[in-house]
Amino acid sequence: MEADNHPVSRREFEDLRRELDRQQSIEAIRRLHYAYGYYMDRLLFDEVVALFEDDCSIHFQGGVYLGKSGARRLYGGRLGQFAQRKGLLVDHLMLQGVIDIGPGGSTADARFRCLVQGGVHETVAAAEGRRNQYWHSGLYENSYSRASGVWRIQTFRYTTVWEADYDLGWGKADPEGNRAKPADTCFSEDPYGPDRLEAMPALFPDNETVPFHYPNPVTGQRWSATATEG
Question: What is the structure's pLDDT at 230?
C-alpha cells in the first residue's frame, strides 16, 4: 500500500486540534466527577470543595448554595456532621456519563447516575439505632467551566430518585425515608442552610423525569415533558 503523502491543510490541522482538545476535556471532566465520588466515599469534604469554581452554585435536597462559602456550609457543615469513622460505609458508584463540551471549549455539561451502597456495620448500628444497609440512587446534571486549563464544577445539580433498605429492596422504597432531609431553613437562620430554597421532585414511586441537558443524538430534538404529555 502506497503511503498517503497528502499534506494536512491548516483547516484540517485546526479541526484535529479542536477534536483532540474536546476528547481531552471529556476525559478531564469524567475524571473530575469520578474524583468527586471517591472523595465523597471517604467524606473528605475539603477535597470536594476544592473541585468547585469560586462562583459556583450547588442545587441539593431543596436548597441552593452559592459560591465557595455555600459549598463549605453544605459539605463542611450540613454533610460534615457525617464524619468518617469506623463501621461507616458510603460508596458512591458513578455511572452512565454523558458529557458535552460547549462550542467555545471552555464550558461543558454532563449527566451522571449515582448509586450509593451505604450502611453501618452491625457492631455500630445496634448501638446507634441506625439502619444497617441501604441503597440510594440519584442523577447529576452538572455544568463545568475551564480556566487556565483546569476544569471545575460550575453548577452542581443533584436529584435523589429513590432510596431503600437493602433487605427490602427498591420495590418497597419509602419516599419519606430519605436520609438526607430536604432543606427547610436558609442561611443565616440555619448556619448550615442554603442561600435559598427550591422545589424538590418527589421520590420513587413517583417518576418525574430529570430534564436532559443534551438533545436526542439521532433526531437532534430536545425532550420535554410538555411534548410527551401532548
Answer: 43
* 221 occurs within a structural domain: yes
- Please tell me the pTM assigned to this model: 0.91
- Matching residue, cell 458513578: 94
**What's the number of domains the chain is made of?**
1
Instruction: State the residue range of the domain holding 60.
Output: 10-229
**Mean pLDDT value across the chain:** 91
Q: How far apart are CA 137 and CA 169, in angstroms?
A: 12
User: Could you tell me the CATH number of the domain that includes residue 110?
Assistant: 3.10.450.50
**Contact criterion met (CB below 8 Å) for 193 and 186:** yes
Q: Are 38 and 47 in contact (CB under 8 A)?
A: no
Residue 23 lies in a domain: yes
Among candidate residues 63, 68, 55, 90, the one with its CA nearest the CA of residue 179: 90
Q: Find the DSSP H helices in 72-224.
A: 122-128
* pLDDT over 70 (residue 214): yes
Instruction: Label residue 20 by pLDDT band (50, 70, 90).
Output: very high
> What are 123-150's pLDDT values in tens digits?
887 666 665 799 999 999 999 999 999 9
Residue 21 covered by a domain: yes
Instruction: Name, in order, each residue with C-beta under 8 angstroms of 103's C-beta and a sequence gap of 6 or more.
Output: none
Q: Is the pLDDT of residue 73 over 80?
A: yes
Length of the chain: 230
- Indicate whether 4 belongs to any domain: no
